Amino acid sequence: MISIKDLNPHLLTAEYAVRGPIVIRAQELEKAGRKIIYCNIGNPQALKQKPLTYIRQILSLMEYPALLDSTIIKDLYPADIIERAKHLHHLMPHGTGAYTQSAGMPFIKQAIAEFINKRDGIPTDENQIILTDGASKGVSAVLTALLKKPSDGFMIPIPQYPLYSATIELYGGTQIGYYLDEANSWQLNEEILTKSYNDAKANEIDPVAIVVINPGNPTGAVLSYENIVMIINFAKKHNLAIMADEVYQDNIYSVNGMFNSFAKVMHQLGESGISLFSFHSVSKGFMGECGHRGGYLEIRNVPADVMAEFIKLQSISLCSNTVGQLVTYLVVTPPQKGDASYDTFVKERDGILNELKTKAEILGKGLNDIDGMTIDIPEGAMYAFVKFELPHTEDVSKMSPTEQLAYESKRDNDYCMALLEETGICVVPGSGFGQLPGTLHFRTTFLPPRDEMEELVRKMKEFHSNYVSKLGITN
Predict the structure, then answer these.
(1) Element (H or E) spanning 242, and its range?
(2) Which of 43, 201, 254, 401 shows a CA-CA span of 20 to 30 A to 281?
(3) How far, in Å, CA of 464 to CA of 225, rounded?
């Protein structure tokens, strides 16, 4: 029988905090009858966000075409939904249960190209687009393709979404962390980037790409145009590919905030010498269709033979799931003004985004009122990376850097576990995402219903005060 020692060592060392021990304990408590406020993962529909009507109506007609022959169909669906479903059946004669072309159905890739062109006002080639099972599979594909040897390194933000650290570890590559500038609204800092790059080179690591998440996970920050220009110039200077995780592009809450894609900024700079890999997903935004696992990878500035290798890589898995491709198509081609389904779509879309904005403010203002806790009110995405302070229980000055890291990791894990046990609030320790040494954080979503977010703020204030008092030690 296989034992743990027989497994791939890269699997054993990979970590994914978003679904780690605290979440497992939350599920145990819930099973025992406790009410849990899940703030650990961006899973909107699991937290009572309703799916968009037009997506589900189209899917129902695509998955069960006999409905189109029903005598009551006109009483159940708007006319444009019925006509659209009929058109899609014409485009997909084999239905949703058949494999598709490896890179995805051509009409969907064309629709994505038109979506990008309309969003950014830039030329877009549908043949440079690959449909993927969520953005995660696109990320995995790029890491697989670019990783040639163990010393190849990928610059990833700290804090970062652990998909990147876990996948790089799993594939046997090297992580090059660069700290986001918390004092400057979590923007990227050229001096910090340069230091991370130089330190990697000094340790005989070969940087091959830089990962940027915009809007940010776990920070909720939206990068400025000027910051993106700096990143592009940095990548050009050091011959790095750019991996642009842009799955939260629809989640912008700040009045002055604006999403700028890396593709648009590179085009405006006239930059064609940097390879760019951009990711989008149906899981986030106002869609929240996580379970359908739809998304795409757009590739710019690579030669034809390189693109062919990406298509080959995708073909090894045959294709991404057909329904996920269909949902991606529906996301990039929403109802238009004049369609019977348009008013409902706009009401649902705006309602979701306005509610997220309100809950971000409730979270930000509420936690900033807690003594020893600070948070940048999220400008985008679905998360906040909350900084909190605790009195020390040990003399940190006598610790080595490794010992201090372990000490801080234990402290934020203990804090988050105690928070769960006492209040039912499930968040993720900051050490699971990475954080500046000497600081403590946790990541929370603001996806739960408004009343639960208000409850979270009340419970958090009482818990934090009591937890600090129980430590009984001051600096």
Answers:
(1) strand 241-245
(2) 254
(3) 37
Vertex 107, ends 103 and 108: CA angle to 5°? Answer: 60
Q: How far apart are CA 11 and CA 209, in angstroms?
A: 22
234 sits in the region (left: phi over 0; alpha: psi -120 to 50; else beta) called alpha
The average pLDDT across 332-348 equals: 95
Residue 463 — φ and ψ, nearest 5°? Answer: -60, -45
By the 8 A CB rule, do 253 and 362 touch? no
Q: What is the 3-state secondary structure (H, E, C) of 439-468?
A: CEEEEEECCCCHHHHHHHHHHHHHHHHHHH
475 pLDDT higher than 80: no
Amino acid at 156: I
Residue among 342, 345, 328 nearest 110 (CA): 328
Q: What is the pLDDT of residues 289-335, one digit of tens each?
A: 888 999 999 999 999 999 999 999 999 999 999 999 999 999 999 99
- Please report which helix (H) or strand (E) contains residue 88, including its range: helix 79-91
CATH architecture of 106-332: 3-Layer(aba) Sandwich (3.40)
Strand 440-445, strand 383-388: pairing: antiparallel
Tokens of 321: 């799931």
pLDDT-wise least confident of 189-198, 235-244, 446-455: 446-455
Q: Which residues of 7-143 form beta strands (DSSP E)?
A: 37-38, 129-132
Q: Taking the CB of residue 264, how many other CB atoms lie within 10 A of it?
A: 17
What average pLDDT does the segment 157-167 reach?
90
Query: Taking the alpha carbons of 435, 436, 439, 444 in that order, is the dihedral positive or negative?
Result: negative
Return the structure tokens found at 15: 């970590």
pLDDT at 19: 66
Q: Which class is domain 4-48+351-471?
A: alpha beta
pLDDT at residue 105 greater than cutoff 50: yes
CB neighbour class for 474 (10 Å; exposed up to 12, middle 13-18, buried from 19): exposed
User: Is the torsion defined by CA of 445, 446, 448, 452 positive or negative?
Assistant: positive
Largest alpha-carbon pair distance within the chain?
78
CA dihedral 442, 448, 454, 457 (to 10 degrees): -10
Domain boundaries, the chain: 4-48+351-471, 106-332
- Structure token digits, residue 292: 């359908």
What is the rounded CA–CA span in Å between residue 65 and residue 122? Answer: 37
* Burial label, 118 (beta-carbon count in 10 A; 0-12, 13-18, 19+): exposed
